[in-house]
Write a structure and sequence with these properties.
about 90 residues
């Protein structure tokens, strides 16, 4: 099933870490206005579950294991092209 991200849903996820932002195509550190770039973006229920799992204060090893369980390589995640990155 497909869900459309809205401001309330994004803020309900709490403070997003770099892993979650990369899953959404946002670079780290996120530049001003990144949240509005996500509003209206469609994601699957599976992607939403993946976004919720690494939430909160976790160790790097735990986040890597979460990604691996979903078949996502952390190195490929952080090397993939991002849609919205910080410009200096």
């Amino acid at each position: 099933m497909i869900m459309v991200l809205n401001y309330e849903l994004i803020t309900a996820l709490g403070t997003l870490n770099s892993y979650q932002l990369r899953l959404l195509g946002i670079g780290w550190p996120p530049r001003r206005g990144w949240i509005y770039h996500l509003v209206g973006q469609e994601i699957t229920d599976d992607m939403f579950r993946i976004l919720v799992e690494p939430k909160g204060p976790r160790k790097k090893a735990e986040r890597i294991q979460i990604l691996k369980r979903h078949g996502i390589s952390p190195s490929k995640l952080f090397q993939s092209k991002i849609k919205y990155e910080r410009t200096v």
